[in-house]
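Standup notes, protein team

Yesterday: finished cleaning the Brevundimonas vitisensis set.
Today: DUF2945 domain-containing protein structure.
Blockers: none.

Input for DUF2945 domain-containing protein:
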Amino acid sequence: MTNKSLKPGDTVSWAHSQGRSTGKVVRKLTKPTHIKGHEVAASPDNPEYLVKSSKTGAEAAHKPSALTKR
């Protein structure tokens, strides 16, 4: 998945320890930030995406390679 192909509102899925989850892209992260006490080392050259889970409503940052557009 290239980082140019995702935009806010896109539905995506990703793998985690209990299987797969789906959710929506909230925004592209291009600078270091903190989410729920975790440091996200995003940069313009290494962006991550903030996604919101459809099931739990929880937000988390994911690398583009971990996301699959649905």
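Follow-up from PR in the comments: The first strand starts at residue 11 and ends at 16.
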